[in-house]
Structure formats: structure tokens, C-alpha cells
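Before relying on records like the one below, remember that each one covers exactly one chain. Contacts with other chains, cofactors or solvent are not represented anywhere in the record.
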Amino acid sequence: MTQIDYYFSMISPFTYLTGTRLEEIAEKHGAGVAYKPVDIGQLFARTGGTPVPQRHESRQAYRLQELRRQAAKAGLPLNAKPMFWPTNAAPSAYAVIAAQSAGGGDLGGLVHGLLRACWAEEKDIAEDAVIRTCLEQAGFDAGLADSGLLAGAETYAANLEEAVSRGVFGAPFYITDGDERFWGQDRLDDLDLHLAGKI
């Protein structure tokens, strides 16, 4: 089975704007998805990226326009300046890692639910209650929010090292078995075409 390694940030608006399209594309092509949340701040620091507040004002203004346009294209509600952003992404990332290990629920739904909570519902995804609710809504045991914290932290750190070594520099980022790399939710159509053998 073809596998897509999916590197993403729990506080990235562009990851949120992926919606459920990655899962739809993977299902269409019979591919699996390995979810690999990463610390976007550390990823930027390691690969030459600049945190949003440190970018030139023209880049920040363009980012806001692009978010508005991409949200409209995706048909997703978006608050480009949410109340709880930035926040500590680690607790929600640990929950995703624990859920992937446990199985039995909708992992893509969990990721999207947490991202939606941040970018459309004005919720703090560092809060235990928010994470537990998202776990339950995606068909997982809410207790995963509390279990496997050490393993989650270790995997989260390992994901970052792996991402840097494989050429990942932003989020969302998709890598196929053949090391074809796609950066950004606006490259999902290209990923789809690649898996279809057209590009």
C-alpha cells in the first residue's frame, strides 16, 4: 500500500485549510496516511523559516489575504486572528500521537476537529477539556489526552528530527513513498495527480 507521510502543525491555519481532502485523496488511491505532528516554531528555526510576528508587514498582510481566499475556496470558516493563537501545540499533538497508536477512531477527523477548534471555534487547543471533547467526537477514548505523555513527547521530538532530515520546511507537508514532496494545502491537487501517475 502506498503511504503518505503527513507532516503538519496543530496551530497552522494552512493545515486547517486542508480540511478532509487529504483523507479523501488517500482513500481514492488506496493509500495510507501516517500523521506526524511537528513543532512548527522549531521547524522554522531549523530550516530558515520566519515566525509570523517577525515577518515584514507586507508578508503579514499578504498572508491574511491568502488565508481569506483559501478559506473561501475550501468552503471553511476561518478566523485569521483567533483568540487562542499562538498556543501550546504540544498537548494536542500528543493526543493525536496517542490516538494514532491506539487506533479505533477517525484520526483525520480528530486532527481536523482540533484545528477547527482553534481556527473557527475560538477554543484553546492546549486545554485538556477541548482535547478530550475532540477525541470523543472523533471516536476515541477521551483518556488518551492523559495517557502516553512521555511517548507523545518523544514521538513529537522524533517527528521534528525526521521532518528536518527529509526536507520538510513548512506545514502542511506531504511526502510519498517515492520521496515526492508537496508543500501546502494548495498542492493537494498535485498530490492527487501524482498518485494517479499523471505527474
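The first strand starts at residue 3 and ends at 8.
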